Each structure stands twice: as C-alpha cells, then as structure tokens.
Amino acid sequence: MTTLHLDLGERGYDITVGRGLLANAGEYFNLNRKVFIVTDSGVPCEYAERVAEAAKEYRIVTVDEGEGSKSPQTYIRLLSEMVDFGMTRTDCAVAVGGGVVGDLTGFVSASFMRGIDFYNIPTTLLSQVDSSIGGKTAINLGGVKNIVGAFHQPRGVLIDLDTLKTLDRRQISNGLAEAIKMSLTSDADLFKFLEENEITEENIERVVVDSLKIKKFVVENDERESGLRKILNFGHTFGHAVEAEEEMRGFYHGECVAIGMLPVSSQYVRNRLIPVLKKASLPTEYGGDVEAALTFISHDKKCDGRAVSVIFVDTPGTFRTEKMSTADFASLVREYFN
Questions:
Q1: 225 included as an active-site residue
Q2: Do 245 and 303 fall within a single domain?
Q3: Catalytic residue at 70?
Q4: Scanning 86, 171, 249, 324, which has its CA 20 to 30 A from the CA of 256?
C-alpha cells in the first residue's frame, strides 16, 4: 500500500493506493454522517454498497454510464436528490466510478450549500492516474467539454487496484494514454518503463503511483492552472477537439489524447511514442474529419481569443509551451495528419 499526501495546506489530503481497500473505506474517510454516494450503471453495484456499509446514513444514486451524464440535467437531478435526502453542510458526497462520476460529484459537492466534503474512489485506470486528484470538477454544455465547473479539492482519495480487474482491455488502454502523456512531459524513467514492459496486474501499481506523483507535484505548485499545471494539457488541444467531433462514435478520452500527442511531439519522440501507443492498443493515426475537429479548437479553455497555448515535447521528460495562433496550430495539425 502507498499513501501520498497532496500538500495544499488546509485543502491537502491523502491519496491511498493499494488492493482490497474498498471494504475499509470507513477507515480512510469520515463517513459517520449522511453520505451521498454517486456511481454509474457501468460500475459493479457492490462497490457503492461497500462504501454504504461504513456510512451512518446513506443514499446511493446511479447515473447513466458515459459522458452524457456530465450534463446540466443530471447535475440538477443530483442537487435535488441531496435536498430530498436532507443533507446539510456537515455531510459529504462520495464518487464511486470513473472520471465522469468524479467530475460530476465533485461539481455537485462544490455547489451544494457553497461546498461540502467530497471523497473520490476512482474505479477506472484513467481516473486513477489523472482526474481523481487535483480538484478540477465540471460538466459539459452545448457540446463543449468541461466548460462549466469549479475547483473543489476532495477530502481524500482511495484507489483500490482490485477494481481494475473488471475493466476490459480498451478501458486499460484508455488510462495508459494519460500515464504515457505524463511520463513524456515529466518522467523519462516512467516512459522508458512503459517502452520496455508490458503492463500487467503485477506492475500496474508502479504506473499508477508514478503518474500520481507527477500530477501531485504539478498541482501542489499550480493548483489553479496559472502556469505549470498547463503541462497536463499535453495532447489535449487537438485531443479534446477530436473527442468533441467523435462524441457520437464513442471515442474514449485516452484514445483522443493519444491522437493529440502526435502532432505536438518531435520526430524523435514520435519514433519512440508510436510503438508505445501500439503496444497499449491506442490509435497512432486519425481517420476522421480533421477540418471538422479543428472547428472545436476555439472552444478550448486554453484558447485566448485567436491564440492557444500548446505544450510540445522534444525529448521524453521535458516540455515547452508555445503560444500560437489557432490558424498556425490548425496548419500544424493538417501538416501532420494530411
């Protein structure tokens, strides 16, 4: 078992990583109060039930699986359920699921009575290595991803690696994309490990913990994304555009990030990255409509008027930021994919 502490002063919290932790959630979280548990239809119901067993009083609410639940309609539904449950400012919410559940529950927690305690139990590899920590919470609106949200740090994060056993290979690949992303900007040794090893049940803990260490360092030094935290957007500028364009075709977030990393990597990095992506069963080319995807760039939160901040990687473990016009970025993407 590994415990990391994200040091943000009074907003700091522990991130506990191990196996068999879910059954002991009450040892890590203060659940001796009303506990509002949010999960989704794709998560085994016993996960939420184990958390409920440790609660003084609980209500479990299940939302539909998928990005569609990060909607204003679901957000209002959860707030209404909280009111009906008679929750107060001293009660808490727990997310049990992937990034969608975490983002949604976190934003509801940030909003209800101007902020209540929120705990996160991520059950997908993608959420375990990335979205479970850092305090970014949001919903989507008008086809734009994460456009309405707030910074609201969890009070604790519990990562039970046993929950990964129920995931299919594509979901594991989805999470590996974010680990690859973080290794490229910040940890050459982790990238080399991903190059040289097949990721198995036995070594997945190293990938999760090392990825969390990267994000922990970034968040501690830039909680509100005014500088360093922008490196977490490597691969996301075009990746989010692809995700918006391909929403109806069911592209996963990590698959879009994999595509998005390619045009902003040097040729040297691409020569090493493409084999890693292939080994992880992630896409190494984009067969969709590049022009249609590029129309979403102007909606990106990193876009300031007609300019966008883009993260580039020239060698593993390093990064540089370049502010470029959306037209120049579009040309860069076109040049690579065409």
A1: yes
A2: yes
A3: no
A4: 324
